[in-house]
Amino acid sequence: MAIEPGDVVVLKSGGQPMTVAAVDENSVECLWLGDEGELFRETIPSIALSVVAESEEEEDLDVEDDEDDEEEAEHEEAEHDDEEDEEKSSKKKRRSA
């Protein structure tokens, strides 16, 4: 798989993801953010890089979607519990009348 501008890559030896800005014959210009938010730009030999698989990027998105699904399920459960409490309250009122 050829490295193209816009791809996300990592060093084969490890490290954080970097975005490809430009590709030359044997080198790749990469951009990434440091721990404190500073922007870095470096030209790296293409042989030292691996493209991050799209499935890994999708997994990150899936984790966020799963968190949203969990919050929605908790909200629906809370609404259901409220409805049950209202029903019980209504039954008690009818019994005491």
What features would you describe in this structure?
This protein is α+β, with helices and mostly antiparallel strands and 97 residues long. The protein folds into two domains: 8-51, no CATH class; 53-97. The protein is 44% helix and 28% strand. It has a five-stranded antiparallel beta sheet with strand order 4-3-2-1-5, with no helix packed on it. It is rod-shaped.
What is the secondary structure topology, with strand pairs?
Layout: E1 8-11, E2 18-23, E3 27-33, E4 39-45, E5 49-51, H1 54-96
Antiparallel strand pairs: 1-2, 1-5, 2-3, 3-4
- Give the uncertain stretches in residue-range form: none
Extended strand count: 5
In whole angstroms, the N-to-C terminal distance is 77 Å
Q: State the secondary-structure class.
A: alpha+beta
Total helical elements: 1
Number of domains: 2
Report the sheet-strand fraction: 25-35%
Index terms:
97 residues; alpha+beta; 2 domains; 1 helix
Short description:
The chain has 1 helix and 5 strands.
